[in-house]
Amino acid sequence: xxxxxxxxxxxxAALGAAGCMVNPVSGKSELSLISPSREKEIxxxxxxxxxxxxxxIDDKRLADYVSQVGKRxxxxxxxxxxxxxxxxxxxxxxxxx
Length: 97
Description:
Helices cover 66% and strands 6% of the residues. The chain has 97 residues and is mainly α. A hairpin with a 6-residue loop joins strand 1 (20-22) and strand 2. The longest helix has 27 residues, at 60-86. The model has no long low-confidence stretch (mean pLDDT 81).
């Protein structure tokens, strides 16, 4: 029974190590059961299906507006991060004072 348990653990570890990839969004290592190229294929297939079912809006003014809103949100988020990082830590009051 022990050799079977050991073999199972070694196989699981090997598969886990082979399937770990760094998530480009979070920067964290995560288990991936499919390759990045297969993910792209799936995404392209889904995009074709969505376009066939619902269509896409081809409006440059709308695309520009959405892009500007996204940039403003990103700038606001970055400014918030900088402000939070610049704040000194809160002082804790002492019970003996």
